[in-house]
């Protein structure tokens, strides 16, 4: 009977981890907590009658950590405080008030989840390339003829589309692609000499010259 209970506990902890992973949060395990000295202190949502992990991670939003406790309490923070340390998973053994077969921490025991933030997008200049209106060097997505073009807004547009390359041209044009198409080839940097319409302190390519950035 005892080993069956243990198996049940193990399965519940496992399912909690899987649920969390699909939300981009990973369980760090069960930690000790106390009412006078909390592990996660930035904000809390307590005594929820229909509590679940999903409710807590939605509440904790952009914080690094979320923690569920005593079946019905949620805590958020960006550091684990109060000398809280990992303890046996068996201490996180109180069923969530909102999910009948899953544990939401325990009494003075908080199950802590870490949010997996995607790595920041970094763009590196790969130089000034030749381009022509009849055969665009990068071409899959674009927006052109705008009076507020900047390198950053072009990169952000291309990042949203999931593209590897972003290129600015003729002061006011932005192109995105996953391939650099021939006959486009590297050219002298001096051809990429037109101030961006949205920020004259930087250049946005030139006439038949596209300044290309590659995403890491
Ligand atoms: C956790 O337990 C340690 C001792 O193992 C104690 O020093 C610490 O204060 C406890 N922290 C919390 C938040 O309960
Ligand atoms: C640039 O201007 C257009 C409309 O003229 C606007 O829709 C867009 O949000 C602006 N972009 C930036 C980055 O300000």
UniProtKB/TrEMBL annotation:
Domain WSC: 24-116, 122-216
Record protein name field: WSC-domain-containing protein
Segments passing through the bilayer: none
Source species of the chain: Pholiota conissans
Lineage, opening ranks: Eukaryota, Fungi, Dikarya, Basidiomycota, Agaricomycotina
Organism superkingdom: Eukaryota
Keywords per UniProt: Repeat, Signal
Signal peptide: 1-22
